[in-house]
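Note to self: keep these together.
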Amino acid sequence: MRLGRKIAIGVVTGVAIAGAGLIGLDAADKAFPPPLDKMRVSAEVLDADGQLLRAFATPEGRWRLKTDVGDVDPQFLRMLVAYEDRRFYEHGGVDPRAIGRAAFQLAANGRIVSGASTLSMQVARLIEPRQGRSLSAKLLQVARALQIERRLSKDEILDLYLTHAPYGGNLEGVRAASLAYFGKEPKRLTVAQAALLVALPQLPEKRRPDRNLEAAEAARKRVLERVAVVDAIGEGEAERAEATLVPAKRMQLPALAAHVGEAALRKAPDASPYRTTLKKRVQEGLETVAKAATLKLGPKLSLAMVMADAQTGDIVGEVGSADYFDASRSGWIDMTRVPRSPGSTLKPFIYGLAFEEGLVSQETIIEDRPADFFGYRPRNFDMSYQGDVTVRDALQLSLNVPAVKLLDAVNPAKLLIRFRRAEVRPLLPVNETPGLAIGLGGVGLTLKDLVQLYTALANRGQAVRIGDGILGQPGEIEGEALLEPVAVWNVADILSGVIPPAGAPQRGIAYKTGTSYGYRDAWSVGYDGRYVLGVWVGRPDNGASPGLTGYGTAAPILFEGFAKSGLATTPLPRPPSGAVRIAQAQLPISQRRFAVNPSGLLATSGREPAPQIVYPPEGAHVDLGAKGLVKGGDLSPLMLRLQGGRAPFRWLANGKPLPDISRRRTNQWTPDGGGYSKLTVIDAMGRAASVGVFID
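Structure:
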C-alpha cells in the first residue's frame, strides 16, 4: 500500500468517525445490529467445584472457551488495556487521539508505527471477520465498534475479547491459550505469562511459541518494555519476567471424564456448561490408575471404575473404559452401564440377611463340604473345601458352599426384594425365577448398580441413588433400609479384616472381590465410612480371559484407586447398639453350628423349631449409656433377635408386653433405666424363651 493511500485511509476514517452521529446512526444501528450472538463457544464439562474437566471443540474445530473478566488475573487485564487501548474506559468505541497519532506517525515515518484500533474495534473484527484490510472493512469495523459500545458495558466488551482473541492454530480466547501453554486457568498468572498472552493475538500464527519461539519471546519483550505496561506492573517486574522461559510446547486441554461428558452432551446438547458431581482431583487420580493398569492388562481387556459418596449419592469419580480412543478395547463403550455377572460380590448381602434373621453370628460354625441343593452343586473357586469354618472365615475366604447354604435359608427371592429397596433390579435369565445361583453371580448387574448396593453397607444399611454423575441425579431412596445397622456392622467388621492384595497398604477399608464364571469378569468393591469404589475388569465382548480374578486383577486397582483419589480415609461407622462380636463358647447352642436338613429348613428336633433368643445372650452386660445418663434422658435402644418359632411374636420386658406384635425375628426395646432386666418372647404356638441381661 502506498504512503498516500495509507494517509488517505487514516484521514477518511477520522472524518467518518466525526460524522457518524450526523448520518442517522440510530436508524442504521437498529437496521443492521452487530452479530453478537453468532459465535459459538466450546461446550464445557465442569466438576462439582466448577473446575474444567473437558471441553468440546466448536463445530468449526476451534477451542473457544467462554471467558469473563472475573475468570482472568486482574494484572493481565491492566497490562492488556495499557498495551492495546490506554483510553479504553474513556472513549466510546473509537479513540480520536489514537487515530490522529497513528495518522501523524504514518505521514512522518512513511510506515505504520502504531495502530489506532481500540479493543472495541478489535472485538468488532473478531465477531465479524473479513478478508483483507480495505477501507470499507475499516469503516464497518468503526461503525460496529460504536454499535457495540452502545449495547454493552466495558466489562462485557472485554468478555468478548477474552473469549475470541486468536492465539494461533485453533486456540481462541485467553482461557484456551493459558491452558494450552501454561496448563492452568488464567485466574492467577505471572507477569511473564500475562505479557505473552497480551502479545500473541496481534500476529497469532507468526508468534506461536510452539512453532516460532524466538518471535514469541521478542513479542513478549515488546509488551514488557512498553512504558504504560511498566507503569501497570511496577518497576523491576519487567526485567524479572524477561528472564522467564517462554513455553515451547502446547499442552492438551483437560480431557477428563470422557463418557460422562459425552452423556451430558447427548442429554442436553445446548445446556453447556455441564455441571457434574465429579471432583477433578479424584477423576484425575482414577484415570491415572486406569492408564497404568491398562499397560499391565492383556490385549482386548478394559476396565471401569465408579467412586461414589455413600451419604449424598454423588459420583465423585468415574472411568468408563481403559482408554476411550482404544478401538482394540472398545474404549467408547461405557462399561459402568453394561450388565455383567457380579461373581461373588453379592455374598455380603446374603450374610447380612442371615445376621439380621439371627441364623448365624460371626463365630458360628458352618460346613464347607460338597453339597447338593436339589441338583445344584456349587463348588469353590479353587475346587477345594475347607471343612468346618466360622461364618467370618467363610465370608473372608469367599467360600461358595456356605454362601449358598445361607442363601437357601434366607430365600433368594427375599434377597432380590431387599435389592429393590436400593432401587436395584438385577437381570435374571429369561423365564427363570430367583434361584441359588444368584449368590455366585447368576444375575446381570452393572458396576453402578453394584456401587449403589454397597452404599448401604457404608451408610448403616440405607442405600442412596448414585445417578449418572450429572448434577441433579443422586438422592436419598425412600423406604426401608436394605439391611439393619447391626447386620451391616457385622458384614463390615468381617470385610475390613480381609487381607489386602500383595503390595497394597492397609487403608482401613472393607472390601469384597468377585470373579464371574469362565474368567469373564473381575470385580472388587470397597468402602470406608464415606466413599464406595467399584472396579470391573474384563473384555467388553464378554470373552474369557484365563487368569483374570477379582483378587489378583481388580483388587490391586481398587487399593490404588483409593490411594490416588486424594481423599482421606473416613473410619467405618462405629458399632450400633447391640453390635458385638460374641465368642463361640458364649453363643446360644442354636447358633454354635449352622446346618440345614434335606428340605432346606434349619435342622431341629420336631416339626418346627421353638423360639430362642440369640441376642442378647443370657447374662450379657449391654452398654446402652445408663452409667452416664442425665436425669430425664433416654437410653439407647437394645436390639432383640430370635431364631426359630412361628410368627407373630410377642416380646415382654420385665413382664410388660412391648407395644407391637411383630412378624419379624428382630425387634428393639428401650429400657427405662439400668440394671437387671428379663426379656421374654412368645411365638404363635405359645412357646416362650427368656434371657436375663444387665443394662449398663
